[in-house]
Each structure stands twice: as structure tokens, then as C-alpha cells.
């Protein structure tokens, strides 16, 4: 479950501030946090997260089991512009862009104290892996 945002017109340094806040969080928590964040990068990252959730839903995975496994902000293209300066010279202005990569993963649910006997089949629902530990 991946989603990409290419050439987002904000510097990677500013976008990483938002990305580091929601790394490793549950999708519900991340959406709630992005709703009330006063940073400009919050809205595009929220849209990217919703896109990744929709991609996961198309694969048949429930929204409740998802968390943000990886959120990477890389440097995109840099547009070079000039600003007139004193005595006919010019200073360069770099307009930076960002490439944002979002990867979602599913939580692994551990079942510790169960009454499942040996040889009995366990049904796995919604691709959630069940680890069964024996009683001692």
C-alpha cells in the first residue's frame, strides 16, 4: 500500500517537520493530527495518506489495521530563479520541491491465551497474521 507525491512545491526541510510527527502512527491518529496541524504541508500529506488508505482498501485490507510504516521526504527538482541586485548583478533564488513517499503496513495481532487445541484449523480474517503461543 504505497502512495507518492512528486514535485510538491515546498522545501523538503519544511515537509519533514510534518512527516516526522506522524511516522509510525495508526492511520486514524495520523489523520486526526494532520487535521489540526498549522503547517502548510499538513493538507497534502493528509491527502496522500487518504490515497494510500484507498489503495489498501482496493487490495482488501481494513482501514483499522493500518499504520504508517514509512514516510520519506526526498529532494525534488530545484527551479533556479534570479532576483535583481545592486550594480546590475543578480542573486540566485532556489525554489525547491519535494518527493513524498508513503508506505502503509498492516498490524500483526498476537493471540496469547487461547483455547485452541493442536490440529485445529485457525481461520485468518482480513489477512491479519495470528501468532499463537502455547499455554504453559
* Named CATH architecture: Alpha-Beta Complex
Mean pLDDT: 86
CATH homologous superfamily descriptor: Ribosomal protein L22/L17
Strand proportion: 35-45%
Give me the CATH fold name. Answer: Ribosomal Protein L22, Chain A
Could you give the count of β-strands?
5
The domain tally reads 1
Helix content: 25-40%
Order of helices and strands: EHHHEEEE
Which secondary-structure class do the elements indicate? alpha+beta
Using only CA atoms, what is the Rg? 22 Å
* CATH class term: Alpha Beta
Taken from the alpha-carbon principal axes, the silhouette is: elongated
Number of helical segments?
3
Physical arrangement of strands within the biggest beta sheet = 1-3-2
The largest sheet, given as strand count, sense and whether it forms a barrel, is: 3 strands, antiparallel
Our measurement of the CA-to-CA distance between the termini, rounded to an integer number of angstroms, reads 38 Å
Low confidence ranges: 124-130, 132-136
Describe the protein's architecture and organization.
There is one protein chain. The strands form two sheets. Strands 1-3-2 form a three-stranded antiparallel beta sheet, with helices on one face. The protein contains three helices and five strands, in the order E-H-H-H-E-E-E-E. It is an alpha+beta fold. It has helices at 12-22, 27-35, 42-58, and strands at residues 2-8, 66-84, 90-106, 109-111, 130-132.
Features:
single chain, 136 residues, alpha+beta, Ribosomal Protein L22, Chain A, three-stranded antiparallel beta sheet, two-stranded parallel ribbon, 3 helices, 5 strands, 27% helix, 36% strand, elongated, disordered C terminus
Amino acid at each position: 500500500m504505497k502512495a507518492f507525491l512528486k514535485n510538491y512545491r515546498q522545501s523538503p526541510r519544511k515537509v519533514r517537520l510534518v512527516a516526522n510527527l506522524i511516522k509510525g502512527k495508526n492511520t486514524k491518529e495520523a489523520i486526526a493530527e494532520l487535521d489540526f496541524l498549522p503547517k502548510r504541508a499538513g493538507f497534502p500529506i493528509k491527502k496522500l495518506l487518504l490515497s494510500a488508505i484507498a489503495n489498501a482498501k482496493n487490495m482488501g485490507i481494513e482501514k483499522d489495521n493500518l499504520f504508517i510504516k514509512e514516510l520519506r521526504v526526498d529532494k525534488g527538482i530545484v527551479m533556479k530563479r534570479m532576483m535583481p541586485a545592486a550594480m546590475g548583478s543578480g542573486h540566485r533564488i532556489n525554489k525547491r520541491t519535494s518527493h513524498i513517499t508513503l508506505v502503509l503496513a498492516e498490524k500483526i495481532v498476537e493471540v496469547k491465551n487461547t483455547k485452541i487445541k493442536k490440529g485445529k484449523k485457525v481461520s485468518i480474517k482480513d489477512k491479519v497474521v495470528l501468532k499463537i503461543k502455547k499455554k504453559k
